[in-house]
Specification:
Radius of gyration: 33 Å
Strand order of the largest sheet: 3-4-5-10-7-6
Oligomer: single chain
Largest sheet: 6 strands, antiparallel, barrel
Helix content: 10-25%
Strand content: 35-45%
Length: 371
């Protein structure tokens, strides 16, 4: 009896306790927006990889590799007078890297190397000292180290096997930063947040969330949405910019995205957004299969005749049609829409054709993106 009363009391308390709604699309600001002053910068350079086991550039087909070798040896004080070398243990490569924001001199970067000539593999090579420059022509890093190649190749006289790409690789922590970026984070007078998925509703919600926080912390609003992608945050006089950004990026915002359907006809991939809706429409899908079979017949001449052997063509054509059911689609939400498409029993390529037809009929309340 006591157990029954306890269960009834708990049920009554659950009915009185309000249930807070959970936002399925709530995310932190740091996950949906990036700091404009905190973007990466691309670096590029030209270098040589040495130590290859006969898989480098052929100097006759890649003359720039020989010119680079001669220039490098001359800078090292080695005379290059003489005939042309036939060694294939060197390869010319382009070296690329991304300079992260607020990087300081002395820290290291990963670099990517890609062959320029006719080298067959960079496995086992070593990248020699290569300067990496930015868009302004200044040297920001210097790269050097052993190259790691994930692909491999093997060949014999009559067969060869290749897996992955052997003419590109990486040098982990192979570049050392020598120069820092001119701008400083502390020198900024405000913060500009850039949305990774531009949307006016999300930008306004970010500004409202930041202003609610600032009203309690600093006594006034500091955020203003500029457009669908940028939200400007002014720095309060008593605030530290680094601490302010750390507090703002952890605020939770309910995101919003436009209804969109992405279709990739090459791979047969269909991605349907959560807000996609379909007005009431009837759909009929039928698969038409045409099979053509060629069975030529050989006709021999009669014995003791002067006839010639001839080939008589014979073609059989069969036509099959299946799946001609008519289904009514009315997708007020994603689950209903997917269930309606599956009820027709079509493959992904058929779903692509159906979605295109629904869009042409004006019943698809979403943007259709065909890749």
């Amino acid at each position: 009896m006591m157990k029954r009363l306890l269960v009834a009391g708990l049920a009554f308390l659950c009915l009185l306790t309000p249930i807070q709604p959970a936002f399925a699309d709530a995310s932190r600001i740091k996950d949906i927006a990036s700091l404009q002053a905190g973007r990466d910068n691309q670096l590029i350079g030209y270098g040589l990889i040495v130590g290859l086991q006969g898989t480098g550039d052929s100097l006759r087909s890649s003359p720039f590799t020989e010119q680079s070798m001669r220039a490098m040896l001359q800078n090292l004080g080695i005379s290059t007078q003489g005939g042309q070398s036939a060694a294939k243990n060197t390869a010319a490569v382009m070296v690329t890297a991304n300079l992260p924001p607020f990087a300081s001199p002395g820290s290291r970067l990963d670099v990517t190397v890609s062959s320029l000539g006719d080298a067959t593999s960079l496995r086992g090579g070593t990248l020699i000292m290569t300067s990496l420059t930015g868009a302004d022509g200044q040297i920001y890093a210097v790269a050097q180290g052993s190259v790691i190649v994930s692909g491999f190749s093997a060949q014999g006289q009559a067969a060869s096997v290749t897996e992955g790409v052997t003419t590109a690789g990486r040098v982990p922590n192979g570049a050392i930063i020598e120069r820092e970026l001119p701008s400083k984070f502390k020198d900024a007078v405000n913060l500009v947040l850039q949305l990774r998925n531009p949307d006016f509703s999300t930008a306004v919600r970010i500004a409202d969330t930041v202003n609610r926080f600032a009203a309690q912390r600093y006594g006034g609003a500091i955020a203003e949405p500029r457009d669908s992608q940028e939200v400007s945050v002014a720095k309060p006089k008593t605030a530290d910019l680094t601490r302010l950004m750390a507090e703002i990026e952890n605020l939770v915002v309910e995101t919003d995205t436009p209804a969109k359907v992405v279709v990739n006809e090459r791979t047969g991939t269909v991605v349907i957004g959560a807000d996609v809706k379909v007005s009431r429409v009837a759909v009929s899908y039928g698969t038409l299969t045409v099979q053509v079979t060629e069975t030529p017949q050989i006709i021999q001449p009669q014995p003791f005749s002067n006839g010639e052997t001839a080939v008589q063509p014979q073609t059989d054509i069969s036509v099959m049609k299946s799946g001609s059911n008519v289904a009514i689609l009315n997708g007020p939400d994603l689950r209903t829409l997917v269930a309606g498409l599956n009820s027709i029993g079509v493959k992904p390529d058929g779903i692509i054709a159906i979605l295109q037809g629904i869009k042409s009929a004006g019943a698809l309340q979403a943007e259709l993106v065909i890749q």
